[in-house]
Amino acid sequence: MVRVKRLRGIGAVLAGALLLAGCSDAGSAKGSKDAAGPSKSGSGPADLVPMPAAGSISWSRCDDSSFECGTLSVPIDYGSTSGPKIKIALIRQKATGPDRIGALVVNPGGPGGSGIDFARYAASAFPKSVLQRYDIVGFDPRGVGESAPVRCLTDSQMDTYTQLDPTPDDPAEEQALVTGFTDFGKGCEAMSSQLLGHVSTAEAARDMDQIRSALGEPKLNYVGASYGTFLGATYAELFPGKVGRFVLDGAVDPSQPAVTANRLQGGGFETALDAYVDDCVAGGSCFLGATRDEALTRIRTLLADLDAHPLPGDGKRSVNEAIATTGVLSPLYSRDQWPDLTVALKAAFRGDGLPLLELNDVYYERGSDGHYANLMYANAAVNCLDGPAAASSPDQVKTQVDEFQQTSPTFGRALAWAGLSCGEWPITPSGKPHEIHAPGAAPILVVGTTRDPATPYAWAQALAQQLDSGHLLTYDGDGHTAYLRGSACIDTAVDTYLLTGQTPPDGKTCN
After folding, report:
1. Is residue 314 scored above 60 in pLDDT?
2. 234 Cβ partners below 8 Å, 6+ apart?
3. CA–CA distance, 433 with 204 (Å, rounded to integer)
4. Can you tell me the distance from the alpha carbon of 159 to that of 180, in angstroms, rounded to the nearest whole number?
5. Which pLDDT score is estimated for 154?
6. In angstroms, rounded to a whole number, what is the distance separating the alpha carbons of residues 497 and 222?
7. Catalytic residues
8. What is the DSSP code (8-state) at residue 247?
9. 58-64 long-range CB contacts below 8 Å, 24 or more apart?
10. The pLDDT of residue 102 is above 60
11. Where is each Peptidase S33 tripeptidyl aminopeptidase-like C-terminal domain found (predicted)?
């Protein structure tokens, strides 16, 4: 699946780019008995060993005087809690008013998104009423950002990797893609061997409970977006008795196998692209064409042409089909970024690929100096550990392509081939798809957007139905996630829940 950095709004998203890991498979790493009481019912993880007592967080002022920074030591392996530890990096802004409710832990998704960066965003974007009554706490999950980051490739190797042909046309191109995926995994193993087998979502959820305990909170209050909904649901499965107020926005369906999730996400992006071109056509004199079909055909033709004839980019990298596809996908996450897509497509039709390349670089978190953040490395490591690959061979992909293309004529073929990204992963997956019920958990608010490109609305419906205490709130709109996206109706419902615990009426839909 795909993601793009977007700290302007909640919901940096789900999984690796077209040449990275497919959707997270609802990892259920083997669990541990914990004083918080991990669930033994349903399909939840098994109880094996006691959880350790949480350590302490030593807070000190960050550069910004309104934030405190700290670290918390946690076991690398919860099955061997006396073994090596890593430090989880945290950030906190204390509640600004009286009548404090507690700490509100936030996660932006990914996997691989920085919770530290997101907490800084939340402290400026969340309403005053929430900031007055909650400490805002963010953390970089294990393997991410400042928390023992996973590394896999050099920057120049990553440049090459992002340009691999995502739609191979012959055996040589197929082999090049397989080799690229294999070398990526080998690089992760060589550069991050100690942690690579211990970055599952279940282990990150256990880290969250260590954080909860270290903060002195009896319950965990949480806002998670996109993949962060899977992290939150996994926590609820492990520790249902410790669930406080949980907002899961842009939800993932943990029961979907990777191949199904990737195909459905392709459909989500196709829906978002349809909405973009419909908006262009409705405005009159659309540069793409007079109808939806004309507009889509022009975009698809551009991507196909770039497979053989790349455009100039930044002088060092050209813009081929891989770069352009990522550049088109990236701004579909938010309606606010549709104008960026228009600028980039118009430039490409003039023979200038640089704006598409810049959108690609935002997606991959590649800086102007050519350095990549670790987001995509963590993304692949988590996804490939959380569940079986969508495909294990080119022949298997070929049996899937037609169905992918039926669901997503524009992106389906590339997403089908992306299913190979975990096929040669050096670490055996520790999880598998399964429903999450979390019996005994307090009411959980699941938020879904009807035209969400990255986490299709049906996933929010599914998660809300699976969770014994799930309540669905619907945003009839465009873009990935709904909270703080401009809908006063959604924001009021979420804020009311966070402040009072009252869920919206069943079936509530906002525009």
Report:
1. yes
2. 26, 27, 28, 201, 202, 204, 205, 254, 436
3. 17
4. 12
5. 98
6. 12
7. 226, 452, 480
8. E
9. 59/92, 62/91, 64/120
10. yes
11. 408-510
